[in-house]
Amino acid sequence: MNYYTDNPVLKHYLTHPLLRRIVEMREQGFTEAEKYDYAPVDFEEAVAGYEQVLTLVGELCAEVVAPNAADVDRTGPLLDKGRVTYAAATDENMEMFRKAGLMGISIPRCYGGLNFPTSVFIMLEDLVARADAGFGNLWGLQECAETINSFGTDEQRLRYLPRIAAGETMSMDLTEPDAGSDLQSVRLKATYNEADGRWYLNGVKRFITNGDADIHLVLARSEEGSSDGRGLSLFIYDKRNGGVHTRRIEDKMGIHGSPTCELVYNNAPAELCGSRKMGLIKYVMALMNSARLGIATQSVGLSEAAYNEAREYAANRKQFGRAIENFAPVYEMLGEMKARLDASRSLLYETARNVDITSCFDELARRRTLTPEERQEAKAFSRVADALTPIVKGMGSEICNRNTYDAIQVHGGSGYMKDYTCERLYRDARITSIYEGTTQLQVVAAIRYATNGFYSTLLDDYLSGEVSQAMAPIRDRIAKMAALYRAAVERAQSFGCQETNDFLSRRIYEIVSYCIMAALLMLDASANEELFAASARSFTAMAESIVASHATYIENYTPELLNDYRK
Predict the structure, then answer these.
(1) Which of 258, 315, 326, 519 is paired with 388 by a 20 to 30 Å CA distance?
(2) What torsion, rounded to 10 degrees, do the Cα atoms 300, 303, 307, 309 define?
(3) Is 218 left (phi over 0), alpha (psi -120 to 50) or beta?
(4) Is a pLDDT exceeding 80 seen at residue 567?
(5) SS3 state at 233
């Protein structure tokens, strides 16, 4: 069994026209083939290399990680004298991935990595999350290395990136007991010691994923007397230097293999990453966007796992003399699960491609000055990436929760029992719409693109693309949904009241999210009708119903409703 080769949908995303440009930019004209025997000489060889790694990870996920998941869920990590020990099966997973050279996926080759683009890295994360979302948290945090690569000094890159590529683990230490979503309230103190020229960290961090990692990125208050985001800087903490102990591992509902820790910093030596005062404003914002794309990927992997479990059970479970997959209430659920999965995945890889191009331009800008045309193009891709990220994280996680819910429903009473995988998937899924920014915060992040017309323009771009004859009617239906979206935004703004805009923003967010997902799935179906046409039709039908419902609510809205909700 292999999680990559058994799912042809994934291979489809390696054929997207934009991937060629991403790879050519990432590989800098394929010049590294002269220095590294594993570097590709052209685009075709690069894709062949990606497929080799995807096949390897697909096999490891199916044959090692997934079979270990139930045991990891039962045992979880342990805490002893301030240090965390992974579950034995998690250690087995990590060792397998280290031996396979899979701990430096996107790290440049000069530091021991594979230099893969984001689009391929998240495809690997997709596979891992399908096998075990908790392990995906540990393995996927290697992406934090990109922050050091982008903002660290040459010396920091030389010291830390080879260690990460060799298999050392990472964490991002942001949240505190009184600073969750409001990171401007971070209080962990960073003090510079003139005598030895080092920074020292003191305070508490809470809800830190993989908190006893080898290398930490830490948001701390470096400016004495400050109280907002302008007083925060980003630091690198090396576990080898001591000064931090794990006070507790949280007893969580799900993702048990991933230790969520409370950390106490006591004069922990650290070093500044980037410039002072830019920790939250620049570096953590970039880090969070990357993390949110990671959670969106985790959500898609869990959705895939839930759908597969439900489909297999429905095919084998017989009632009244026939398999339950033949009953309309069941095959309706299965069809909608597949449609939601495919729509969220279309959005995920569209977001990743825009993130990839943006990252490539950022790297190019570090080597030379961009031309005016390049700066304009980079800005355009960056804006799409920023606009899609809160949608893919928010809607991807909500779809994940719905799909795991439906998987249990298909199983009936059996699904409520720990004997079945879907029970664990349901618990693992719940966190996806909470951590790295709740769905409500994704609405806040996205709504400005709704009110300034950017999403409307983006929809026009998607709908003006070439579509197959079979998808032409779908495009017409999505265009009608887009008209309802524009009318809803106009209606909300007509009240001239910010509180009304805030109150209606969730519905506007969902309307435009369903429009964009339907449009992207339509484009995928135009490129490959066999894989996506059924889902495109099903998802569009679902989207029409949801969009119409929200549009009607907004059309009938009156300010008195605000008072009704407050009561």
Answers:
(1) 258
(2) 110
(3) beta
(4) no
(5) strand
Q: How far apart are CA 437 and CA 1, in angstroms?
A: 35
DSSP conformation class of 211? T
What is the sign, positive or negative, of the torsion defined by CA atoms of 190, 193, 194, 199? negative
User: CB–CB of 159/113 below 8 Å?
Assistant: no
- Determine the residue type at 56: L
Helix (H) or strand (E) run with residue 245 in it:
strand 244-249
Write b or e for each residue in 539-548: b if 16 or more Cβ atoms lie within 10 A of its Cβ, otherwise e: bbebbbeebe
Written as six digits, the tokens of 424 are: 């664990």
Rounded distance between C-alpha atoms, residue 139 and residue 124, angstroms: 10
Q: Tell me how far CA of residue 514 lies from CA of 396, 430, 434, 517, 543, in angstroms.
A: 11, 21, 20, 5, 6
**Maximum separation of any 2 CA atoms in the chain, in Å:** 81
- Arithmetic mean of pLDDT, 449-455: 95
Please state, in angstroms and rounded to a whole number, the distance separating the CA atoms of residues 415 and 404: 10
- pLDDT band for position 204 (cuts 50, 70, 90): very high
Lookup: tokens for 367 = 């080597």
Dump the DSSP string for 497-556. -HHHHHHHHHHHHHHHHHHHHHHHHHHHHHH-HHHHHHHHHHHHHHHHHHHHHHHHHHHH
Q: What is the pLDDT of residues 226-281, one digit of tens each?
A: 989 899 999 999 999 999 999 999 999 999 999 999 999 999 999 999 999 999 98
Look up tokens 């390696």; give the residue: 14
Name residues whose C-beta falls within 8 Å of residue 462's C-beta, 6 or more positions apart in sequence: 516, 519, 520, 522, 523
**Nearest-CA neighbor of 55 among 129, 127, 135?**
127
Q: Is the pTM of this model over 0.90?
A: yes
